[in-house]
Each structure stands twice: as C-alpha cells, then as structure tokens.
Write a structure and sequence with these properties.
Blueprint (H helix, E strand, L loop, with lengths): L16 H13 L11 H23 L5 H26 L2
Helix pairs in contact: 1-2, 1-3, 2-3
Length: 96
C-alpha cells in the first residue's frame, strides 16, 4: 500500500508567484533598452503590471513562509520600473 502524500506549503500554487513575477519583470524590463522601447511598449505595460501584481501577492505569501521573498521583490521592482518607464518617457509630450 503506497504511503500517503500530504501536501506541504511548498506544494501550493503560491510558490510560483515569485518566479512568475521575476520572469514577467525581466521580460518587461527588456523594453528599457533604447532600441527596443517602442517595439516592446505594450509588453512593458502588460507584463510590467502583471509582474507588480503577482509580485505583491508573492510577497504576501512569502511573509507567511510560502515561496521565496527575493524572487517576488525582484519581480515587483523590475515590473514597477518597466511599467512606469513609458509614462515618464512620454510625459513631456502630454503636457505640451
């Protein structure tokens, strides 16, 4: 008879929030390269926003002991930078 496999805290889907946030943040941060900014404008907004949201959820779970804190924080920071960069870049043109 096989042994019972009880789920632990490392088996929850919340463990994937940090790495997902990190990879979305890295994908969005590639738009910070000057020659890729206009080509990756939608990616920066969508992936950056998702990285922030998933990273903040990952931080919440990491504080409870589920997942890694550094992955969630790094993904959130990269996502926030990539999300705000287009607004800062085009801000002078909006106030003309």
């Amino acid at each position: 008879m096989p042994a019972h496999s009880t789920p632990s805290q490392d088996d929850t889907p919340a463990v994937a929030l940090g790495p997902t946030s990190l990879f979305l943040g890295l994908g969005a941060a590639t738009g910070l390269l000057p020659w890729l900014t206009l080509a990756l404008f939608p990616v920066m907004l969508i992936a950056g926003g998702l990285a922030v949201v998933l990273g903040l959820a990952g931080i919440r779970y990491a504080r409870n002991g589920i997942g890694r804190m550094w992955l969630a924080v790094t993904g959130s920071v990269l996502g926030a930078i990539a999300f705000t960069y287009p607004f800062v870049l085009f801000m002078p043109f909006w106030f003309m």
